[in-house]
Amino acid sequence: MDAHSDFAEAVQKGLQSSPKHLPSRFFYDAKGDALFVRIMHLPEYYLSRSEMDVFVHQSKAIVAEFGKGEAFDVVELGAGDGTKTRHLLEAALAHSKDWSYVPIDISAHALQDLKDRLREELPHLKVHTMASEYQEALNAMKTLPRPRKRLFLFLGSNLGNMGWQASLDFLSSIRKLMQKGDGLLLGLDLVKDPNTIKAAYSDAAGVTRAFNLNLLHRINRELGGDFDVNAFDHVAYYEPVAQEARSFLVSTKDQEVHIESLGLRVSFTAWEALQTEISRKYSPSDLKYMQEHLGLDKRACYYDCRHWFVDVLWTL
To answer: Do the strands 150-154 and 73-77 form a parallel or antiparallel pair, or are they unpaired?
Structure first.
C-alpha cells in the first residue's frame, strides 16, 4: 500500500469510527514537517531538547556499552531528519569506518534529504534507506542478510503515540527480528509535573494548534475534503492516571464535511471531538514491565540532565 492510499484508508476508517480519530503519524506532510521543526524550538516543548541532551553527551557511552569495540549495524525506525542519531553515528565512526545505517521513515523526501546530508558530512558511513511504514519495513527486513549484530533505534518518544497494548505489540514485532547480541535503544518520555507535560502539547504561540489543524488542511488538499478548518479548535490536556497527553480537534458547530475522493460525508455535532494524538508517559515500573515482557536484558539507562527523558538500552 502506498502512502496516499494508506492515508485515505486511515481517514475513511477514523472519521467513521465512534469516537472519531485520526492517526498522529499523518501530521507529517511537508507543511507538518516544517511546523514540527518550529515546535521543537518552542520553550514549552522539552522532549526533543531532552533527548538531544542524551545523544550529545552520552553517545560515546552508548556505542561503548553496546559495541564493546565491535562494529554493528544501526537500524532506526522513524528516522526523520536524523539530527540526534548523527551524534551516535559520529561516535561509532570514531572507532571504525565499517558501519552501516538503515534509516526507516514514511517520508521518502525526508530520507533522501538525510541520505544526502550524511553522504556529505559522514562520507565513510554506508546508508541504506527504507521508505515504508514500520511494520512493512520490519517484515521486509526478515529476508535481508545480517552479517553482524544490529542496534534498533526507536527514539523521540514515538512509542507513546501508539497506546499501551499497541506499543507492546509493536515492540514484540521488533523483538522477533532480534538475534543473540542485538539491541534495542528506546526513547521514552517520563512521568513528571502534569503542567509541564500539558504545556508541551498546547503552547502559548499556537504552533501546536496549527500542527494539529494541518491534518484537516491535508485532507482538503490530498483527498478533496471541504473541512471548514476555522470551525475547529485544538484542545490538549494531560491525564495523569492513564499517563497520557491527549490532543483533539473540536468542532465548534454542527456541520457536515464531504471528502470527494472517498465519496464520504461525515457529520459533526457542536463540540464533538476528533482525537489526533495520544502520547503516553512512562514510569519506572512501565520500563521494567516492557523489558520483562520482551524477554530482554537491561544494559543501561541514559537520562537527560533533568531526568525528564530516558533512552533505555536492552539486549538479547
So the answer is: parallel
- Summarize pLDDT for 30-48 with one digit per residue, the tens: 899 899 989 999 999 999 9
Burial 79-107 (b: 16+ CB within 10 A, else e): bbbbebbbbbbbbbbeeeeebbbbbbbbb
DSSP 300: E
How far, in Å, CA of 188 to CA of 281, rounded?
7
* Consecutive H or E run containing 293: helix 284-294
Can the peptide bond before residue 103 be classed as cis, meaning omega within 30 degrees of 0?
Answer: no
Distance CA 77, CA 33 (A): 17
Residue with cell 511504514: 133
Q: Give the DSSP letter of residue 42.
A: S
Sorted by where each starts, the structural domains of the chain and their CATH numbers stand as: 46-192+282-315 (3.40.50.150)
How far apart (Å, rounded) are the C-alpha atoms in residues 85 and 55?
7
List the one residue out of 52, 120, 113, 114 whose CA is nearest residue 87: 52
Q: Of 180, 155, 148, 151, nearest to 66 (Cα)?
A: 151
d(C-alpha 251, C-alpha 248), whole Å: 10
DSSP of 169-221: HHHHHHHHH--TT-EEEEEEEBP--HHHHHHHTS-TTSHHHHHHHHHHHHHHH
pTM attached to this predicted model = 0.91
User: Cell triple for residue 292?
Assistant: 520483562
Tell me the per-residue pLDDT of 202-241, one tens digit each, with 9 for 90 and over.
Answer: 999 999 999 999 999 999 999 999 999 999 999 999 999 9
